[in-house]
């Protein structure tokens, strides 16, 4: 009769020993993670409580408006999208989100692919929302890395607006502003009749995906459990690991949805023409947003033409400074997704916004090439190599409305620049 209680006692001792051991492991792990979060900002960001300590993508800057944040997991200690903040780089790339590599993994952005294919240390200083005027401001930082080559990625999609906005809205780089009173009068009148900033912001909201809030359960039991979860969420780094894994799994699920064609078709059908779904007989599928693109490429708008002048003026100044530094300077001309797909979208199937965008972009590129050639500035055009990917059956852009090249498109640009380097 005395055996059973002894057996239960042994089981209880084993259970308590296991629980104490597991608890000790959790406590030790918690201490390690707390220490790592204290000394390594990236770990703190990864394990942070969403909504309490947000993952900073950018931080404010008095001249640029904002800079990429060093706290972001994909950024180095300077804030740029590189594995390490190198002291010297043979190649430095400047530009906007097309060069930053929005929508692809860090190593898939064209500057990183260029470095991997050539073996040259390549440093990416691009960031979303930047234009050539921003690159001009960053040029001293770029030259501090003693590069042999400085590359500016010039994107048709919004660099004209970004350059105009920086000089005329943010009042930076006053030396680039025109002293032509008639031009200033025309710009003031255009802003009075149709504020471009408000129009761009409205279309940007339509272009974006938006977010969906989780439904809330406010029952008493849920509130009690929720309070305990909140306490762990705000203070426990082990809990943060679990949360980080769940976030990544959710993000992967959302990325899968973003590339699912049926929801994109449904969204395009209900967008009143702001999203245009395209399917080709060759099996290519994607969403165009020409109305959004043309808002910042409308060649009939004096502010867009002024943005173009400012962008080219900034590029010319960059060229002069880079050459005087003793390095080479190259401009990579990056087209919109709509222009890349031009040959596949038959004329009869083009909307008025699509046709207008193509006309305006071609005007912009023609004038750009004429100006760069006259100034002796070397450039390469990414349009032919991106079109070549389509011809050989490889789509260089995602199916979604995202206008950033995918890994294949980024690779095409990297190869274009690599070929230019090989001839130098």
Mean pLDDT: 85
Assembly context of the chains: single chain
- Briefly note the structural class of the backbone: alpha/beta
Q: Which word captures the global form?
A: globular
Radius of gyration, Cα only, in angstroms? 26 Å
Helix and strand sequence: HHEEEHHEHEHHHHHHEEHHEHHEHH
**Fraction in beta strands:** 5-15%
- Strand adjacency order, main sheet: 4-3-5-8-9
**Largest sheet, strands/sense/barrel:** 5 strands, parallel
What is the helical fraction, as a range of percent? 40-55%
Tally of DSSP helical segments: 17
How many E-type strands?
Answer: 9
In whole angstroms, the N-to-C terminal distance is 93 Å
Indicate the low-confidence ranges by residue numbers. 49-54, 209-226
For this entry, give a set of tags.
alpha/beta, 5-stranded parallel sheet, 10% strand, globular
Question: What can you tell me about this protein's structure?
Answer:
The structure is a single chain. By secondary structure, this protein is α/β, with parallel strands linked by helices. It is built from 17 helices and nine strands. The strands form three sheets. A five-stranded parallel β-sheet has the order 4-3-5-8-9, sandwiched between helices. Helix 4 crosses helix 17, helix 6 crosses helix 13 and helix 9 packs across helix 10. The longest helix has 37 residues.
In summary, what is this structure?
The protein has 424 residues and is of the alpha/beta class.
Secondary structure: elements and pairs:
Elements: H1 3-39, H2 41-46, E1 58-61, E2 65-68, E3 91-94, H3 97-100, H4 110-118, E4 122-124, H5 132-143, E5 149-155, H6 159-169, H7 181-193, H8 196-207, H9 220-235, H10 237-258, H11 261-269, E6 276-279, E7 285-288, H12 290-295, H13 302-325, E8 328-334, H14 337-340, H15 352-374, E9 378-381, H16 383-391, H17 407-422
Parallel strand pairs: 3-4, 3-5, 5-8, 8-9
Antiparallel strand pairs: 1-2, 6-7
């Amino acid at each position: 009769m005395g055996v059973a209680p002894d057996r239960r006692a042994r089981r209880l001792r084993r259970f308590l020993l296991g629980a104490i051991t597991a608890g000790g492991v959790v406590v030790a792990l918690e201490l390690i993670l707390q220490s790592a979060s204290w000394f390594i900002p990236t770990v703190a960001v990864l394990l942070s409580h969403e909504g309490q300590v947000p993952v900073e993508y950018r931080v404010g800057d008095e001249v640029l408006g904002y800079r990429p944040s060093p706290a972001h997991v994909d950024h180095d200690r300077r804030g740029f999208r590189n594995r390490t903040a190198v002291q010297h780089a043979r190649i430095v790339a400047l530009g906007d989100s097309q060069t930053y590599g929005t929508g692809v993994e860090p190593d898939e952005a064209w500057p990183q692919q260029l470095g991997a294919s050539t073996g040259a240390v390549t440093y990416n200083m691009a960031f979303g929302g930047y234009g050539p005027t921003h690159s001009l401001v960053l040029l001293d930082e770029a030259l501090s890395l003693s590069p042999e080559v400085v590359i500016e990625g010039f994107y048709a999609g919004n660099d004209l607006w970004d350059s105009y906005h920086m000089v005329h809205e943010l009042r930076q780089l006053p030396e680039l502003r025109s002293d032509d009173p008639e031009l200033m009068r025309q710009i003031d009148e255009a802003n009075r009749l149709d504020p471009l900033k408000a129009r761009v912001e409205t279309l940007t909201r339509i272009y974006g995906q938006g977010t969906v809030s989780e439904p809330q359960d406010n029952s008493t039991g849920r509130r009690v459990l929720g309070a305990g979860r909140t306490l762990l969420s705000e203070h426990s780094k082990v809990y943060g690991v679990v949360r980080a894994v769940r976030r990544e799994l959710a993000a992967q699920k959302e990325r899968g949805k973003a590339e699912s064609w049926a929801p994109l078709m449904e969204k395009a059908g209900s967008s009143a023409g702001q999203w245009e779904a395209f399917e080709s007989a060759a099996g290519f599928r994607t969403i165009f947003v020409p109305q959004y693109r043309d808002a910042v490429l409308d060649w009939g708008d004096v502010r867009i033409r002024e943005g173009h002048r400012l962008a080219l003026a900034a590029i010319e100044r960059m060229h002069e400074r880079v050459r005087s530094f003793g390095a080479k300077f190259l401009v990579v001309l990056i087209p919109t997704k709509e222009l890349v797909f031009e040959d596949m979208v038959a004329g009869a199937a083009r909307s008025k916004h699509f046709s207008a965008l193509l006309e305006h972009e071609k005007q912009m590129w023609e004038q750009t090439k004429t100006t760069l050639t006259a100034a002796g500035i070397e450039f390469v055009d990414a349009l032919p190599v991106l079109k070549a990917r389509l011809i050989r059956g490889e789509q260089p852009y995602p199916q979604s409305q995202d206008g950033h090249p995918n890994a294949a498109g980024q690779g095409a640009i990297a190869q274009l620049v690599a070929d230019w380097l090989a001839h130098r």
